[in-house]
Amino acid sequence: MRQYWLVKSEPDAFSWDQQVANVVEPWTGVRNHSAKMNLAAMKKGDRAFFYHSNIGKEIVGIVEVVREAYPDPSAEPGQPWVCVDMKALKPVPKPVTLATIKADPELADLALVRLSRLSVAPVSAEHWKHICALGGVKA
Questions:
Q1: Residue-number span of the structural domain to which 45 is assigned
Q2: If we measure between CA atoms, which residue out of 29, 57, 45 comes closest to residue 120?
Q3: Contact, 86 vs 54, CB < 8 A?
C-alpha cells in the first residue's frame, strides 16, 4: 500500500524547478534521526509533497520514490545517514501555503504543523487527499 510523505527543501539550496529539470534526484543531506527513519521507511512508489521551506513556505510539487533508502553519498564515511531517489511527477497547480495549512482545522495534526522542524514527515492518506484538493491536484 502506498504511503505519503512531505519533504522540505530550501528553494535557494534545491528548488522544485531543479527537481523538475533533474527528473530523478537523490534526497540527500538529511541530518536528523527522525527524518532519517522516515526516509528509511519510504518504499518505491510512495508519493511526497515537495515543500519549499524558509522562502515561500508552500507545497509546490509532488515527487515519487523511485529508489529506496541507501547510504547518503553526501555524508561523512561511516555516518548512518541515508537518502532515497525522488522523481518529479507534477507541480501543484495552486501551491498550498503553510498559512493555509495552519488555518485549516482538518490539518491541525499534520506533522508539518506539529513538528515544524522535521524535514521529512509522514502524511496520512486523508491529509494527502485534502491537501491535493486544496492545491487543485487529482489525488
A1: 4-135
A2: 29
A3: no
Rounded distance between C-alpha atoms, residue 13 and residue 11, angstroms: 5
Asked if 32 contacts 7 with a C-beta cutoff of 8 angstroms, the reply is: no
Instruction: Compute the distance between CA of residue 97 and CA of residue 2 in angstroms, rounded to an integer.
Output: 24
Residue 125 has pLDDT above 70, yes or no: yes
Please give the helix or strand (H or E) that residue 50 lies within, else none: strand 47-52
Specify the 3-state DSSP secondary structure of 15.
coil
CATH number for the domain harbouring residue 31: 3.10.590.10
Q: What's the rounded Cα separation, in Å, for the pair 87 and 68?
A: 12
Residue 108 has pLDDT above 90, yes or no: yes
Q: Specify the amino acid at residue 30.
A: V
* Cell triple for 109: 495534526
Q: Per the structure, how many domains does the chain have?
A: 1
C-alpha torsion sign, points 68, 71, 72, 73:
negative
